[in-house]
Amino acid sequence: MSKIVGIDLGTTNSLVATVDSGIPYVIADTDGQRLCPSVVHFSAAEAAPLVGHAANRVRVLQPATTVYSVKRFMGRRGADIAREELQVTYPVRGEGAGPVTIPIHGRDFTPEEISAEVLKRLKLAAEADLGEPVTRAVITVPAYFNDAQRNATKRAGELAGFTVERIVNEPTAAALAYGLDRLQEHSKIAVYDLGGGTFDLSILELNNGVFQVLSANGNTRLGGDDLDQRLVAHLATLIKSSGGPDLTSSQLSTPNSHHLPLLARLREAAEAAKIRLSTETSVEIALPFLTPDFSFSYRLTCEELERLTRDIVERTRPHCLRSLADAKLEARQLDQVILVGGQTRMPLVRRLVSEWFSCAEFEEERGGVRLGDRFHERTGPMLNTSQNPDEAVALGAAIQAEILSGGFKNVLLLDVTPLSLGIETFGGLMNIIIPRNSTIPVKAGEVFTTAVDHQREMLIHVLQGERERAADNWSLGKFAVQFERAPRGVPRVGVQFEIDANGILHVLARDLKTGVQQVVQMKSAVDVADTEVQRMVEESVEHAFEDLSARRWIEAKLKAQEVLTAAQAGLAECATELDPAYRAQVEAAIHAVTAALATEQPATQTGELARLQAAHAALDAATQPLAEILMDKAMEAMLRQRGAIT
User: Fold this and answer.
1) Is residue 516 very low, low, confident or very high in pLDDT (cuts 50, 70, 90)?
2) What is the DSSP letter of 374?
3) What is the Cα–Cα distance from 567 to 590, expressed in whole angstroms?
4) What is the mean pLDDT of residues 67-74?
5) DSSP character for 124?
């Protein structure tokens, strides 16, 4: 059986790792480099692309044909790409629900194809190191990657010639690399993972040798690239004000601009300065001869960089709060906070994370009150920075690969699904089948029936999100299950959700009468917007009371409509048999329900809900004698039918 390697497919750098005699290590290329820049350069239409360090060296000279940070476009559609993400030096296309493409030399490349080139380079390095073909891999992704992005990552691996054995969340892999499986039982760890293009905060617990993810939260559009972009914009403004060329945002979004080589130089200098300021207090940024008669030089201090980028780093703070809330923990209950991702080398990041997790006031913010920069009583865990933050994820992926190979038998890794999954039910509500933060792999299901007489099919509308109404969540796909016509409530359709070990959703729908079933894999490569994930979590908290009120209204409305329909039908059937006074009483009750139902859906008007519930209860009570008459008529008809048969 061939070796399974672990791969960290990163926004800025990618790595491949393996385990030898129980010791994980990152595999170096023939030049001794362990980090492979996630950069691909296409020199000509038919020529083999340059990948890694070679491509990075060409990036300044030929920026329009050198692709970097492509991970941000994985599994996304054109309409979901923000303007700031298009401020790269190569062309990016994408409209509406169509996929993102990168047109170079007359060919449209997909992000998966670009990533596959990086994976091919890692594959060659692994084969050279191990001396045998390498065809199997574990690949990591941010914990908050949605189904479309996970599928895109898997496809990239397959295009590179790998069988992708497992897709593993990056923070979970990092916990393995830190050796946290050797902690005491019931240890709880937070993994703060800030990389080049994504951010995750996961909380894990060790129980009987099992790593279980208690919660995961994050943003797939937040990382070191954003800090680079902020610094580039700042330097561009300084260059323009000093009489140099205009390299500001208007130029950044023009792929064919003659300033592209200058922009590439500026971006490279900004990134290098940011990295150096992780260990130095100030750096000199020198860009000689940006134009024949203009050179630029500027001394950037660590203090100035922190002032420029602090708000970006602080955008990770709400995710820390939500992850703690989802795990039902307080910061002081954590044993460790480990830092993962190259951007966590930045002193500002380490200082803020230490303060956030080590102060009493942090707990109070979970109630939604911002307390500024007051940090006094240190009660929480200290940071664990014992591992190389650039390599931790790849090492953890290699350990997971060894677990799959049977090499490590005392550790089990359990991930969670970051958002709830369910289907739309009658009335436009979302019925949750797999709740958020359920441990995966997981399988769950329910039985549903029809709400309308003589339906011939049931539409299975698969949803993901945290809101009560289907329209407020995002759609993963739809398909129909057909069955025989029958009165409402008679057909039975079993719906089962299964999330596999890679976090990919499979939906089964079965007609319980005939056994006919459909199984659909939700490959939402271009139909799912990952920007909705962040919105869903934030709005679920913001609109919690409004959503609950809406659900109560819709459920009350459906119940009232059901009683109203039955009452109207019964009144028509027994019109000649009812006392006029009683008939008037029922008609008045029907009118009251009809009037209450005519009210527009009240988001927070509890009075309208109470009015509908009271009218419903009054109609239900008023129709009890009518129900008894109808029951007597039904029994009489059944007895007559039996008499006729005998």
Assistant:
1) confident
2) -
3) 8
4) 91
5) H
CATH number of 417-530: 2.60.34.10
pLDDT score for 529: 46
Q: Residue 377 pairs with which residues in a beta bridge?
A: none
Q: Where are the alpha helices (DSSP H) in 531-543?
A: 531-542
Tell me, rounded to whole angstroms, the distance of Cα 26 from its chain centroid: 28
Q: Is the whole model's pTM more than 0.85, yes or no?
A: no
Residue given tokens 């820390």 in the structure block: 320
How would you classify the pairing of strands 4-8 and 136-141?
A: parallel
Contact status, residue 118 vs residue 110, Cβ threshold 8 Å: no
CA gap 106, 330 in Å, rounded: 54
Domain boundaries, given as residue ranges, for the chain: 4-222+315-414, 224-309, 417-530, 544-645
Domain 544-645 class? mainly alpha
DSSP state of 232: H
CA-CA distance, 194 to 344, in Å (whole number)?
6
Residues 106, 112, 116: CA angle, nearest 5 degrees: 95
The superfamily in CATH containing domain 224-309 is: ATPase, substrate binding domain, subdomain 4 (3.90.640.10)
pLDDT score recorded for residue 250: 53
**pLDDT tens readout for residues 180-237:** 656 677 788 899 999 888 888 989 887 766 677 888 888 877 899 899 999 999 999 9
Q: Are 7 and 400 in contact (CB under 8 A)?
A: no
Contact between 397 and 173 under an 8 Å Cβ cutoff? The reply is yes
Q: Which residues pair with 192 in a beta bridge?
A: 201, 339
Cβ neighbours of 284 (radius 10 Å)? 10
Gyration radius of the chain's alpha carbons: 30
Alpha helices in 90-130 (DSSP H): 111-130
Distance CA 455, CA 462 (A): 20
Say how far residue 374 (Cα) sits from the centre of its chain.
Answer: 32
Looking at the annotation, which residues are catalytic? 8, 71, 170, 193
Domain 4-222+315-414 sits in CATH at: 3.30.420.40
Under a CB-based contact definition with an 8 Å cutoff, are residues 590 and 564 in contact? yes
For 133-190, the DSSP string reads ---EEEEEE-TT--HHHHHHHHHHHHHTT-EEEEEEEHHHHHHHHTTGGGSPTT-EEE
96-134 burial, b at 16+ Cβ within 10 Å, e below that, comes to: eeebbbbebeeeebbbbbbbbbbbbbbbebbbebeeeeb
Sole residue written with tokens 């070990």: 501
Q: Where are the alpha helices (DSSP H) in 186-259?
A: 224-241, 249-252
**Displacement of CA 50 from its chain's centroid (Å):** 31
**Terminal CA-to-CA distance of the chain, rounded, Å?**
74
- Alpha-carbon distance values, 216 to 73, 113, 144, 333, 640 (Å): 21, 28, 7, 17, 65
CA dist 69 and 84 (Å) reads 13
What is the widest separation between alpha-carbon atoms in the chain?
Answer: 111
Measured distance CA(485)–CA(454) in Å, rounded:
5
Assign 3-state DSSP to the chain and report helix, strand, coil percentages, each to 5.
40, 25, 35
What number of residues does the chain have? Answer: 646
Half-sphere exposure of 545 (CA within 13 A, CB side): 3
Torsion sign across C-alpha atoms 352, 355, 358, 362 = negative
Q: 3-class secondary structure for 388-449?
A: CCCCHHHHHHHHHHHHHHCCCCCCEEEEECCCCEEEEECCCEEEEEECCCCEECEEEEEEEC
Instruction: Write the single-letter amino acid at 523.
Output: K
